[in-house]
Predict the 3D structure of the following.
Amino acid sequence: MDIFEQLEKVCVLTTLAFILTQTKLMANLHKPKLPVRDRITALVVFLAMGLLEEFVAHQSGLINARIVAVCAAGLIAGPAVGVVVGIAITALACTIDHFPLPAVGTSMIVAGLIGGLLRSRLPAMALRPSIGFALGAGTSILRYILLITLPMAHGYAPTGPVPLEIAKAIVQGAGVALILVVLGKAREQDSCVRAASMAEVRALQARMDPHFLYNALNTLSALSVADPEAVPVAASRLAHFMRASLDQHDRPLIPLREELEVVNAYLDVESLRLGKRLIVERDVDASLLSMLVPPFLLQPLVENAIRHGLQPKPNGGVVRVAAYARKEHLELRVSDDGIGMPQDIRIDLINSETGRAHAIGLLRRRLRHLYGDHFIFSLTSEPGQGACATMRIPLISIDHIPDNALSSTAGREVRAALPARSYA
């Protein structure tokens, strides 16, 4: 056997396993039953893996990609895919290489079925590398036993020495385990990225100006004397803002409607404090309310506009919140007619990538994580002329997520958090 052909098989197996990590299937591995699209993807990949024996390294050796493909197909995609891959690979092996149908067909179909049943009934266990090793090695041993006990095709010499067959079984088990290890590492990385993304959302929450809560409580105290009947309404608005903001942090995307509810609750509380000094204007098309946006996308910008733009201005001013559809993009805009800022401060805020809790820096990192290069963030301002923060992100409906709308890692994260219909 040629060692280079065996190494070539290992490289191709690893490559195909990596391809699986880049598909939508990754987002649904935790589910007992994969959506139809994911099962089709797995079917195509594992059939390609089975063809490895025919087109990459035709000579027999320690690694049998057919066994690896069938076992992995069942463990990852369920019994239907496992059995179909087993039947297809058996047909190829018997037609092209004239393998004996009873022995090869039985071992392949049993492997796909057992792996699939484990996947459907014990999904977490099925994805363990140790289970993959056991199934791959067991299938190789079963194939060997069937080859020496069942009638052989004319002229077929099935087996080698027992130690060699044991070595083959170990290698087949290691091949299946390798695929599951690659998928497991990708899932761990996704979990780390998701945790980092959620940590940034929490950082934005923690950054929420403590003076806002202090001022809100002072407003409630003042209202209890000047207008006691207004206190329940004010307390309700503050509670709504706090509850809504805390409910958002564990989701990568939320409907624009929910984000605007947080913004409106925040503005309600600030309006009680600032009174006529704060004028709010909204320009949001109702058809955009179901579009998906990252949580805490607008509220920090509104907070900045009020705190740094309008509050220092003696007569206050206007803060505007707008949302527009721009072909395949959603444009969100927060502007004010406050005191503005010098160019050096504006540039520092836009370009800040340090660990400091700048809301704009955190927002830009989150947008880059979610959308890759498919977003635009700009901040314009001149002293005395207010400021305007504009974001343009992919227009994503809760009922449809385009394949190229999100970065690959974030796309799996988002799809895992949404119903299957949202990306079918």
